[in-house]
């Protein structure tokens, strides 16, 4: 039997510049802490090797502190063997990075910076495909098809990149063949780049990021525990959780007759989980003007309970009646402004962005008037 952990996309040193400064520090520290959590899962489940399929570092120029502390933390978890593959964020073009890494490399860490075969255990051979550049211009796994390994050996590929071209251009030459495991006779192909965990086929997996960094994938960060019972046996692939923070998108579909704040309260995670949760509430449907402002106010109040809490109202239409505008003012400059904003928010000749701005301005005006009302 051979068992290893497949991970990727640690992105150590990521800056998170769009978030508050105190949270950025917590998120960066959580990324460093993922090293310890990955190692703990490996020990718990009896794995002996940890494969990092690219983008260990967020840039080609991580600070010496980030580099040395990461390698030192991996070194603390000997005899676990770590194999680090350059990805598109920390490609082989980063000579200074990989030279500095070699200078302080612990004995239990291997840098897979070329296509030399690596013996992971007796009868287990790793075929690495390090990223030569951010956009290498060719499928770096193609060489695996003709790579000879001893008869009966487990052949494990390690690579970083996409298996699908997402632009409208012609198919890119650097897209990894999704059937590479079959073409190259690989028992398993460990991929990095896609931050969400996904199985391409039964022998090809993206591990996903061990610590999420965006709302896109909306799943807990994890790694993959991969077990082979013997030569020719299919891999047994089991996700294992590794994240400290949770990034969630919470849909909130409303009717104008509903209490949006009550609906939100019923969907929120328990209080004990909120400090480690980044939550994006996506409101849709319709709400009365008072209901919209109440929802915004509730989010502002609740935001102190969460690591991060934001409200997206792009798809939330605001219903407004004369009685709602009367709560702003019955006449005068404020009422004239409210009437104008309401007209602009419903003006089909204006762009969607202009209508959204008018709607948000009307909601804000209503909320201000609520706060100063006697």
Describe the structure.
The protein is α/β, with parallel strands linked by helices and 374 residues long. It has three domains: 2-241, Metallo-dependent phosphatases (Purple Acid Phosphatase, chain A, domain 2, 4-Layer Sandwich), CATH 3.60.21.10; 245-319, no CATH class; 320-374. Helix content is 30%, strand content 25%. It is built from nine helices and 15 strands. The chain has helices spanning 21-44, 64-76, 95-103, 180-183, 260-267, 289-302, 322-328, 333-345, 352-372, and strands spanning 2-7, 49-52, 81-84, 109-111, 118-121, 124-129, 154-160, 188-192, 198-201, 204-206, 222-228, 236-241, 246-254, 277-288, 308-319. The strands form three sheets. It has a six-stranded mixed β-sheet, covered by helices on one side. The radius of gyration is 26 Å and the shape is elongated. It starts with a strand and ends with a helix.
What's the helix and strand layout?
Blueprint: E1 2-7, H1 21-44, E2 49-52, H2 64-76, E3 81-84, H3 95-103, E4 109-111, E5 118-121, E6 124-129, E7 154-160, H4 180-183, E8 188-192, E9 198-201, E10 204-206, E11 222-228, E12 236-241, E13 246-254, H5 260-267, E14 277-288, H6 289-302, E15 308-319, H7 322-328, H8 333-345, H9 352-372
Parallel strand pairs: 1-2, 2-3, 3-4, 6-7, 7-8, 8-10, 13-14, 14-15
Antiparallel strand pairs: 1-11, 5-6, 9-10, 11-12
Helix pairs in contact: 1-2, 6-9, 8-9
